[in-house]
Description:
The protein has 408 residues and is mainly beta. It is 9% helix and 34% strand. It has three helices and 34 strands.
Amino acid sequence: MADSAKRRSLPVSLLILIAGLAGAHAAQAATINVSNASALASAVNTANGSGGNSTIVLADGTYTLSDTLTIKVPNVTITSQSGNRAAVIIQGDAMSESAKVKNVIKVSASNFSISNVTLQKSGWHLIQVGGESNADGAVIRNVVFRDAWEQMLKVSIDQSNYSVTGDNGIIENSVFEYTAGIGPQYYIGGIDVHGGKNWVVRGNTFRSIISPSQTVAEFAIHFWNQSADALIEKNIIINCDRGIGFGLDGRGNSRGIIRNNMIYHSAGNGSFADTSIYLDQSPGTQIYNNTIYMENSYPRSIEYRFAETSGVLIVNNLSNRPVGARDGASGTEGNNIANAAASWFVNPSQGNLRLAASNASVVDKGRAVSGLTDDIDSQARSGTPDVGADEWGATGVRPNPPTDVRVQ
């Protein structure tokens, strides 16, 4: 029987399915190569017009935008041809309240992905993920974020409709920083998520998110406003006013895990330095095996507040400052160390709070925690875990923090 005759003999429903699968395969194959800003803007318009399923590949160079790149359709990827994030810069016109380009990228659809580029100079945010548009599944990998007038990466929400949120995102192996060593104003932050559920923030570096005046900056990593179940792990935070926060100002968070992070703040960096990890109306959260070294004047390394913050677990954290409960917060504390010395660590000023030598106060002094299987370097923890983010004597390579955090 001829092929055309075979197709005519198939049920109509099966023919429709075959045609649909063929069309989906063709749509997924769309790749657009660009080498200048106008071509990039055109590529985004083409992706939007074709319904998505497009990969936009950027040649090395600097792409200065005249307007926001708005992603309106699902399954759009932006990446560099070389894979070198320092060689591809997408930027607005200024880091300024009066900048024409408010957001460098605005995402209003699901399954957006960006990798291997640098984003800089915005009047608002470098990326805004529109939770109010149900933009789920964003993936951000190996991206440099720098010099935004407000928070660098924001997940927004419509506060009249909390049933629609931007969920299930991943942010990893990226850098967030102000290249001047201080921010332009106080209303700044690294990652700022409103209402998002089930995000993963892993393996990133945050530097110099510091307010110059008036009041404290927002957090390097912040989940609040009915967010829930975030996993924050293996990040390095250096000289930021505040490190990791769940909840704030009556707009809380539920559950989530903060583990295997390193946070350092030197003396004299900013006038408003605050605590390193903070819970505010965040029930059921677990904070374990973080290493924190603070040379600023704030008295507590980890702080949890208000009666709504209940059932929390705070164990196996290594610091030179104590954990503190305030205003009726409750939970379980244990095996935390609050008298660490700078000499215990490899290089605190670079955020490298790995153990410099075996330390009897730290090694095998933790407690077992469900889900604790490795350390900041993804090296396995065996037997009784060490206190802090670094497992002494674990096998494998012990990497240093990234050295390309200031890409000029």
